[in-house]
Amino acid sequence: MRTLRIITVSFFMLIVAGATLADQIVMKNGDRLTGSIEKSDGKIIVLKTDYAGELTVKLDAVQSITSAGSLHVVLKSGQTIAGSVAVANDTLTVIPYGNPPATAPIGEITAIRDNPSQAAYEKMLHPGFTEDWDLGANVGFALTRGNSETSNLAIAFTAARQTQHDKLAAYANTIYSTNDAPGANPSTTANTTQGGIRYDHDLAGRFFGFAGADFMSNGLQDLNLRSVFGGGVGYHVIKAPNTTLDLLVGAGYTHESYTTITNNFANASIGDEFTHKLFKSTSVTQNLYFYPDLNQTSQYRGTFNFGTITKINTWFGWQTAFGDIYVSNPPAGTKQNDIIFTTGLNLAFSTK
Question: CA-based Rg of the chain, rounded to a whole angstrom?
Answer without folding.
Answer: 29
